[in-house]
Records
---
Amino acid sequence: MLKAAHKTGLVFFPAFDWAIDPTHPEREERLLYTQDQVTEEGIFDIEGILELKPDLINNQDIQRVHFCLPDEESITTESHLISAGGAVAIAQAVMEKRVKRGFALVRPPGHHAMRISHGGRGFCHINMEAIMVEYIRRHYDVKRVAIIDTDCHHGDGTNDIYWHDPDTLFISIHQDGRTLYPGSGFTGELGGPNALGSNLNIPLPPGTATQGYLYVLENTILPAIEAFKPDIIVNSAGQDNHYTDPLTNMKFCAQGYADLTRLLKPDIAVLEGGYAIEGALPYVNLGIIMALAGLDYSRVVEPNYNPEKLQQAPHVTEKIEKTVEIINAHWNNRHHLRESAGSPGDIQERHREIYYDTDNILERQQEKIRICRECGGTFQIESTAMPGSRVLAVHIPQYACHSCREKGYEMYDAAPKKKYDKVILQDKPQDRYVIKS
Amino acid sequence: MIIGLDVGGTHTDAVLLSKQGLERQIKVPTDTSNLFETVLTGFNHLLEDIPIGKIKRVVISTTLTTNAIVQKELNTVGTIVSSGPGIDPEWYRTDENYHAVEGSIDHRGREREPLNHKQILAIAKSMKEKDITTLGVIGKFSVRNPAHELEIRDLLKDQFDTIFLGHHVSGNLNFPRRIATVHLNAAVYEMHRDFFHAVKNSLEQKGLQIPIQILKADGGTMNLESSMSFPGQTILSGPAASVMGSIAYAPGDMDAMVLDIGGTTTDIAILVDKVPLLEPLGIRRGKYKSLIRSLKTHSRGIGGDSHVRVDGNTLKIGPERLGPAMAFGGPAPTPTDALVFLKKMNSGDQQLAQKGMENIAQALGNTPEAAARAIFKQTCTMILDQARDLVHRINSKPVYTVHEFLAGYAIEPQKILLLGGPASYFAQEIETLSGISTEVVPASAVANAIGAALARTTCEITLLADTEQKKAMAPEEDFTAPISHKFTEEDAVETTHELLLKKALKSGADTEDMAVEIIEYQQFNIVRNFSPRGKIFKVKMQVKPGLIKAYEAVCHHCTINPDIEKGI
Ligand SMILES: [Zn+2]
Ligand SMILES: [Zn+2]
């Protein structure tokens, strides 16, 4: 009888009644054919595969990650709360050892949602993986987390949220930002001064095939994970690298996704993008589920799969090998990079503009971070959104040192209330989120 | 007058009901080696001195199929499956006559790979050489497009006596269960046919001209003719019969739990506003999983004859049954011994029961009285825990829309109905422990036969309409029709309703007993490259399980006959 080698939990929440708008790629129909395939295969009848029910997350769960503006209710729908709740349900089952691994097949996605969220970017409003990771850091004994984002778009939201966190290894592989939304994620983006090297961004040229993905996995991602020694591995499992995806230009396939999953061995996978809803998603999701469960997936092949058409061009291979060399050099040099990033106690500034394509908002940020060798470093962000609000947001990291905790309150107290619509303090060590009144 | 007959594993119950109430009731031992004789004996007793013309309805529930599975007396049949991409179909091998062939249909019902006739004919030839006359044909996604199954049938129809097709058994997706269900239908078909033809003939000889109805696992009936296509649906009709027998006493607008406490097991079911809950996909019992429509009944190893012992310092009850209670000559203490010892039950040997309680008391270091009370209380607690566990599992079933998630109806039983031999002894304690109003179903010992007699004909239909592909189909009924892009929700519901009524009448339903409901409705826009291409509609509708109108009131005249209430 068919039996999963690894007990695997699945949350399936296709949100069959929720869409950004009726013809948007992020619409009701997106997981319909995946559900049909998974149901017809009898996946939930397999011994060792458990279907779990998502729970709603609450505002406090969101506030551990985001500054939502003007507030949580305005930029989320129930669907977001259930989707994040699906990721949390999987994480709980994994942490409580009810399952060995899990996969949250949920929508809407979240990996483009940044720490400050004024609305929708790249179909995302709040970040499912980050909310889940911060939930388990709060409720279970987990500190070091590796998040591997294999969506074809740069996971710029997750990248932003963990930019200053040396305890989170965030790696994104994606189609080169010069050829695809959101246009970021280049090799030099390595994290903030206190966390340099804990963000690795690996752009891949259009036309990257299975061979290229597995090359990056084996030569950069897996060695980095091994050196980082995470307590858990999270996979942002976007499926838009598929050769039939309408939004991207890659040559990845269901077998490739399953191989990647088998080698990466994520504890928790969370569905992100993927818009070839008929030709790719049913097979890719089936492949990922079976690989997670340790089942033989060799017959999970797209009906129109033609390996000859999915060959990787030599110049693509060459480009990937060069990128891997660059990334590995940064990674091996990470301790030195942090040492030379500034003197402890100094404040470093960064200015950015962020465009919210889904909701058509432009945001300007001015960020100030305390250089620290002992923790991720407290920072404040002054954010102005057009249209939208002007806020000052202060973040004290989860494992903040004494000086950074004090610095956080200093920043918060010093902020003139009159100048902003809101002054907010996210005090992670105390699990507090306070708005100046 | 109507007749209900339930052939159980150990005994057979039969009732004769008139509009005035229970006219006759009998209980005879079941002869598992000759169920036909058992059924005939039942009828002979019931019909003695009754003018045959007065009998308007006969419903039979049997363990024929269950017995055949347990005793491994299934017929040898051939199985041909085509799967396409996905899980290796070799995992679902039924026996050595199982063959996976080329050919593939995808999730939208489009052909992805054609069948290979040469391959199929070669397989048929090998089966003929083994004298196989019954064949099952199952394709992955055949409920989205049955073309391949029909093509194989047409190719082989002259070479086999009977061919069962996957898309007929259910509109639900689940390829492995479809294989298991078709295989069961095919493997019990000859036995089922021979048995019921024999029953029909002998009833006809008695002058009974009305069609026979057969009880299904979903608590509804089907006529003999329909049963020939789906004989597997008769499996586990016994527990369904008991649940149907309790429905008349369930409150409306409220959730109720039905606990059928037997010697070995307690069967648990849930009623919502007098309608029993169904399994979402079909029967599952341990490793066996099917698409056979079924009431959601959970059988747990705790009952009057459960083995009681002390392990370390803890009292253990069940799940095994070593034999009858010591008070009735059994080998080990049981909850029934506790009942006898505590004088809650007046039959049985007091001294033997006391001996059993002394055994337990010694191991626990207390008095036989304390031991008996502990056993009694723990038995009731365990039964309630199992019932609560079922409610919890039903309530934590995942849903797939924001609306359902937020609406999230949760079962909250406000009434407990007890059935089975020891039920009356447990009622008060169960009510005290649960805080839920508890009632013993009248005539509880033959409630199963009454349930069978009064069950209405049920059926289900699934319609799938795809305006991009311009067709509507209901695979179970081999229905396909062209539709236009203007096809609407109302059209979908109306088409499904028509098909359902037709199917129900064909299965023997009475027009006044069509309690119809939509059990699933989904609608999707098909969008490609940001422009709408059409719509997909999915409608599932059923005639829900319940009691026939004409006789529903009868139950309130059914009283307990002390003659058959004795013994467990
Ligand atoms: Zn993407
Ligand atoms: Zn610090």
---
Amino acid sequence: MSSRDPEDRLMMPDEPFEELKRVLDTRVRSEAPTPDCLQDDVIAAFAEGSLAPDLRATVLPHIATCVRCRGAVASVARALADPAVARELVVSPTDRRWYRIAVPLAAAAVLLLLLASPGADRSPGHRGPPPPPSSTTPVPRSPLGLVAAVRDLRWSPVAGADRYRVTVFDATGGVVYAAEAPDTVIALPDSVTLVPGTAYLWKVDARTGFDRWATSELTEFRVAEPRRR
Amino acid sequence: MDDWVAELQRDRFDAAWDLFLDRYRRLIFAAIRHYAQDYDDVMDVFARACEALRADDLRRLRSWVEQPEHRARFSTWLVTVVRHLTVDWFRHRDGRRRLSVVAEGLPPLRRRIFELVFLDRRSHIEAYELIHAGEAPTLTFREFLSELRATYHAVSTGRRGQVLRDLAPASEAVEDLPADPAGPSATGVAEQSRLLERALAMLTPDDRLIVELYVLEELPAETVAKVLGLANAKAVYNRSYRALSLVREQLERAGVRREDL
Ligand SMILES: [Zn+2]
């Protein structure tokens, strides 16, 4: 049942372990929860790799031997690596520690997210397929997250693209700025006023053929509020 | 503070729910679709997930919000909860019925294995015992294992492959094995498994986890590195290689030869 990316196998040249793996796979199976089994938030933190080192050390012996918890961690880690899921994690404002930085995002902006990249939902990807190469879709480079000021917008180039279209939205989904550019940078005109502390989203489309556009992920940024004296 | 959290804290559950769903509908869908690609499955699981998240005045969401400290990001926690709900749905009535169509294209023996292992969640040894005692009295354990592997392969490449991976009963320590489950061939495998568990137990917890996640769960090396806080994929290759060499050494010391594996 295994067919993996050959790159995954760099250090296993002569496959001496295939048979071993077969036997490991036929261990007796059943799963009953134990009192030590992990809570969902610990499973989640483990899977995303954010568990604090001391807690990680505490739960490691359990997770190494408990098939139920290990299976859940592996399953969630696999889901998080699925590009279709990863994309939603990236655009979700709570993907940052939402209890610290709570950025309101109105329903209209969510609608925009729903409309973004309609064809990408049918990803066949399980078992950690590589993310789509960045050269086929533009990637916003700046601004990202909290920035001091926005003078221009920059993104990565797309092979074969002859034109880029940039759109900046406010948190209600309204278009604040839209323009086209032949290159991977565009200056933000002075006429566009960004309110400090407010969340904005932006995306860039690359034209790769007649009426064919490759769309970046929606990316959020905020301009820092000036410090009080 | 997030708008849906604010509403939740004011006990305005309907408003909180609407805002929550506006924001996370896409993530919930993406998570469900990761496990189940069939359109009808996805829609049914989505309805079930919403029902479960909304139950008892959003009890699950409230319990998250009320925690004094959060270990994971909310969206990861949500994916975890949706994963459990999805797997549960497939384990129970409607999902189980939906899954039984997967078996339709399989030859009779594999179909029976599929039903026993994935639908009835029998252990592999139990499945063998039942088939051996019933329709295939001459089937050896070794033959059964090869049919078992073929069954796994056939179903994991289909549209419901990802969820079936989660539905396959998970392995566990062999101590609970009956001494002589089904004749000499199964006993041989049971004995091997016991030795293997013992060898794995000699690894440090993190080395063991690397072996389990990378070699057995087949997570990509990059993902294993991230989960375990290792520098990079190469560290995962090297450590799993070293750990497996240790396991092999232990087995050889216990008299298991390579041909026996
Ligand atoms: Zn456990």
---
Amino acid sequence: MDIVVCIKWVPNTTSVNIDQKTGTLIRSGVPSVINPHDLHALEIALTLKDRFGGSVTAITMAPPSAKLGLEHAIGMGCDRAILLTDMVYAGADTLATSYTLAKTISKLKFDLILVGQETVDSSTAHIGAQVASWLHIPYLYYVVDVNYLGDGKIWAKRLLEDAYEEYELTLPALLAAAMHSTHPRRVKLSYKLRCKSEQIIEVWSNKTLGLEANCVGLKGSPTIVRKTSFVPEVPRKKIVCKPKDVEQAAEWLIKRLIEERLLKI
Amino acid sequence: MSICSEWDKIDPREYRGIWAYLEVEDGVLGEGGLQMLGVARNLASQKDTYVGGVLIGKGVSSLAREAIYYGADKVFIADDEKFEEYYAALYAEALASLAKEHKPEVILVSGTMRGREFTPYVANTLRTGITADCTSFEVDPAVKDVLGVRPTFGAYLIAHIRTLNRRPAIFTARPNVFPTPERNPAREGEIIHTQPKVADGYGVKLVNKKRFSRGTVPIEKAKILVSGGKGLGSRDGFTILQEFAKVIGGEISGSRKAVDAGWITHDKQVGQTGKTVRSDLYFAVGISGAVQHLYGIREARCVVAINKDPDAPIFDNCDYGLIGDYTEVIPALIKAVKKLQARKTE
Ligand SMILES: Cc1cc2nc3c(=O)[nH]c(=O)nc-3n(C[C@H](O)[C@H](O)[C@H](O)COP(=O)(O)OP(=O)(O)OC[C@H]3O[C@@H](n4cnc5c(N)ncnc54)[C@H](O)[C@@H]3O)c2cc1C
Ligand SMILES: Cc1cc2nc3c(=O)[nH]c(=O)nc-3n(C[C@H](O)[C@H](O)[C@H](O)COP(=O)(O)OP(=O)(O)OC[C@H]3O[C@@H](n4cnc5c(N)ncnc54)[C@H](O)[C@@H]3O)c2cc1C
């Protein structure tokens, strides 16, 4: 089975700081990582390859620095990686991003596409459905387990709030991997070193893809940010104390909450 | 102005009406869709247009009147055998087909698990813009377009997003942020039976489904929540919180750090990348009060903070705060409740 995994290169949210005054992100010095959900997508793809053979190709649309992320993917065991990078792709919303990804994938040989459920930076969870729509292939979100059934079919299990569901999908298909669905494997140095010796990471610009400028980047994006503003503060009472006698304070608080009809006992 | 050749040419002026997609859950209208009807009414009155409700499924016609009682002026119904089982692409193409025919200006979908799965496909089919996870909506005073407001990465800053020149403008909304409108059985409206164009199959088949009960009230429905963070120190901390929750009739929830540590499951995470809660009471225990966490408790009526650090930002965002170690404060609260209960039964 030939599998394509879409990965996004995102700021590491565990080390992001926010300027409390301006409310903006302090991005400088913040390292980027592969979007955490996408590691699960990679793991599912690589497990399928281990069991059924085939190939795994990782692709990302990003600035050149995302090459580090693709090296990570190669280090996990991907066979090939493609970095889509071009100034005309900048400023893309999800319609334009998914178009560029879908056009890239349609140039590759593939049976299955895996994406993460959503990203940690803008977390729209649009891309999976949109790529499937451009390619007219079946798709499923919230996937936790996958198996190849042979005969051009796969089985996928997904977890909803109150149910497990199992599906059969006809290949080619797209699956969005849920967070915590696998234990993503570590990078193997011997794999990663291939990035140095072989031309294993390809860089594609719009010269390679030849997409219409009107369909990609800012021009291919119907959504625009009209303005930004601050989240209005919620008015709260802010009655805070450091009690000398904890039990007395606890009793005062519980009585107060009962008086305010927030608590019934 | 030239546009992408993959997009069909449209005239935005032909598009009128604010639609709300009504998800059917176990034979009744889901809360999320009702919340969207409320939003739609508000926008429609500002834009002087109608509110459309969309029902897709098998046997859903009987719900049309309910949709009207909750605010729809027109209900578009696709009631057919082939919609018995929900499949994302099937429902998406049905909704897209109705939108092509009836040309609404806006489609609102609650961001339930299904909503988030199929709505981007609708937008793509129509080659239009979609804004995710909105927490408020407004009509831009200058351009008169509907804008969806959503948090940016930091959650301090919010972006007001517009879909330029493409219609319908599509939005998913964060569940539970908007109130459910009043049901008014005196309302009247029009019921329109439709036959959306869909394919015969979408290459996907449900083969098995196992319902389970988490044994608890989902946190978005709970009246009282006792929420724990990294400050609990270990999973055992939740045992104490659980005991407190039990005596006051509440449920437990947690911060992202508590979820990441594996102390509590993700369906109980409160915040920007978790859920918005609307409880009457919210106890934040060992939670520092990061903006992304606070984002999820904006709709809580009363926030009580318990933290040993007097400078924790949660104390600037609470109604009541007790500075102290939770291992002392929580048992004291349990004791206080039990004491008052005993007094009541005497
Ligand atoms: C604060 C903010 C809010 C935004 N809101 C919107 C909005 O409401 N609507 C809109 O259309 N756009 C929006 N955008 C733009 C959007 O973030 C970009 O289009 C982005 O490239 C893809 O969206 P995502 O990160 O939400 O992806 P998601 O749809 O959440 O990603 C799902 C999966 O798709 C794959 N994927 C995503 N991006 C890439 C990529 N570049 N390369 C390879 N694989 C990828 C990954 O597997 C990922 O796990 C917003 C951007 C910001 C910064
Ligand atoms: C894009 C993005 C999205 C995010 N989404 C979410 C989200 O949805 N939900 C969310 O919660 N977070 C989210 N976060 C993470 C958020 O920024 C914080 O890191 C997180 O909320 C902190 O969790 P915490 O308060 O449990 O832990 P900490 O910040 O580590 O706070 C622990 C607190 O416990 C107190 N404490 C320690 N010991 C005790 C004791 N014995 N008794 C009492 N108090 C004690 C400490 O004083 C401290 O204030 C997101 C971050 C980003 C960047």
